[in-house]
Specification:
The chain is an alpha+beta fold. It has 4 domains: 5-48; 49-112, no CATH class; 116-228, Band 7 domain (Tetrahydropterin Synthase, Chain A, 2-Layer Sandwich), CATH 3.30.479; 297-333, no CATH class. 58% of the residues lie in helices and 19% in strands. Helix 4 packs across helix 6 (187-205) and helix 7 crosses helix 8 (298-313).
Length: 336
C-alpha cells in the first residue's frame, strides 16, 4: 500500500485478472489430462479386451468369428467347430484374463458362462387315457459353444424360445404314452421320463451350442374346469370303496357267525353223545346193581321195588281203586 487510491484499485484489478488466468490455465490442464485418459482408454480397448471368469467371448472380424474364449476346451466343442464350414480355422482358447485383438477391425461379443434357468409357462398336455393335465416345468441350461450360439440363436431369449418348443413337444410325446395317474403319482417314471426328454433335447440343441443341465416338473395338476368333476368322481369312488368294505365286512361277519354256529352244533352233538353214553353207562350200572341185589335176596328186592312204586304212586289224599289180590297190593293188605 503506497497511500494512492487509484494505484490500489489498479493493483486489485490486476490481481483478479491474474487469478482468473491461473484458474483457466489449471482447468485447461485438467481437461487435457481427462481427454488423454479417455483417449488412452479407447485406444487400449481397441488393442486389448478382458475376459471375466463368469463370461465367454467371441472375437469377430468383419462379422466373421475368428476366435472364441470358453470355459473348457472339450473334444466335443473342438469337433463341432472343426466340422462346421462357417468357422474354418477359428482359434479356441480357455484362458481367461487379458487378450489382444486387432484395433478397429476386430470386435468382441460377450456371453455368460453361468448356469441359466428358463421357467416355462404352465401348459396343458393330454395323457394316454385322454385326460388333460397342466404341467409347470423349468430347464437349467448353459452355453457351451459361444460360436454356435451366436451364429444360430444370438441371444438368451431366442434360446429360451427354442428350448421351450423342443421340451414341450417331447414332454407331450412322452406323457401321451401313459395314463394320467402315472404322471401324477409315479415318481420313478417321471424321473426316467425327464431323463429321456433331457437327452433328446441335448441332441437337438447340440448344433446351437447349448446344453441342458437339468430339467424338473414343479407342478402337475388338472385344469381348473375339471376340479368339480374330479371331486364328484373321487366322492363316488370313496362311496363305492366304503360300500365294498361294508359288504366284505358283512360277508366276513356272516362267515364268522356260521362257523361259530357250526362249532356250537358240533359241541352240542358231542356233549349230547357223551351225556347219552354216560347215561347208558349209569343205567347199565344201575341194572347191574339191581341184578346183584335181586340175586342176593329176591324177596327183599321185590319188597323194596314195591315200596318205591308206592312212594311214586301214593301221594297225599290219593284215592286208588285196586283189587286186594293183585300183586301191587299184596304188601298193603297182606296181614301176614
Amino acid at each position: 500500500m503506497n497511500g494512492n487510491p487509484d494505484f490500489d484499485i489498479f493493483n486489485a484489478k490486476m490481481n483478479k485478472k491474474l487469478n482468473l488466468a491461473d484458474f483457466k490455465k489449471g482447468f485447461k490442464i485438467i481437461g487435457i489430462i481427462v481427454a488423454a485418459i479417455i483417449l488412452l482408454s479407447i485406444i487400449l480397448n481397441q488393442f486389448f479386451y478382458q475376459v471375466d471368469e463368469r463370461e465367454q467371448v467371441i472375437v469377430k472380424q468383419f462379422d466373421k468369428v475368428v476366435k472364441i474364449v470358453i470355459n473348457e476346451k472339450t473334444d466335443e466343442v473342438v469337433k463341432a467347430i472343426e466340422e462346421n464350414p462357417k468357422f474354418g480355422d477359428i482359434a479356441i482358447s480357455d484362458r481367461k484374463g487379458l487378450h489382444v485383438k486387432i484395433p478397429f477391425i476386430q470386435s468382441v461379443e460377450r456371453f455368460t458362462s453361468m448356469i441359466l434357468t428358463y421357467d416355462t409357462e404352465s401348459r396343458e398336455v393330454i395323457t394316454k387315457d385322454k385326460k388333460k393335465l397342466v404341467l409347470d416345468n423349468y430347464a437349467v441350461w448353459r452355453i457351451v459353444n459361444p460360436a454356435l450360439f451366436y451364429t444360430s440363436l444370438g441371444n438368451e431369449r431366442s434360446a429360451n424360445t427354442k428350448l421351450d418348443d423342443i421340451i414341450y413337444s417331447k414332454l407331450n410325446e412322452e406323457i401321451g404314452k401313459v395314463d394320467s395317474h402315472v404322471v401324477i403319482s409315479d415318481k420313478e417314471y417321471v424321473t426316467s421320463m425327464l431323463e429321456r426328454v433331457e437327452q433328446s433335447t441335448n441332441e437337438q440343441m447340440a448344433g446351437y451350442g447349448v446344453e441342458v443341465v437339468n430339467m424338473r416338473i414343479k407342478r402337475t395338476d388338472f385344469p381348473v374346469d375339471n376340479h368339480g368333476h374330479i371331486f364328484n368322481r373321487m366322492n363316488t369312488e370313496r362311496q363305492k370303496s366304503a360300500m365294498q368294505y361294508r359288504s366284505e365286512g358283512q360277508e366276513e361277519a356272516q362267515k364268522i357267525r356260521s362257523e361259530a354256529d357250526r362249532e356250537a352244533t358240533i359241541i352240542e352233538a358231542q356233549a349230547y353223545e357223551e351225556a347219552e353214553k354216560i347215561r347208558g353207562e349209569g343205567d347199565a350200572e344201575a341194572l347191574r346193581i339191581y341184578a346183584e341185589a335181586y340175586n342176593r335176596d329176591p324177596e327183599f328186592y321185590a319188597f323194596w321195588r314195591t315200596l318205591q312204586a308206592y312212594k311214586k304212586a301214593l301221594k297225599d289224599n290219593t284215592i286208588m281203586i285196586i283189587d286186594p289180590d293183585s300183586e301191587f297190593a299184596r304188601f298193603l293188605f297182606d296181614a301176614k
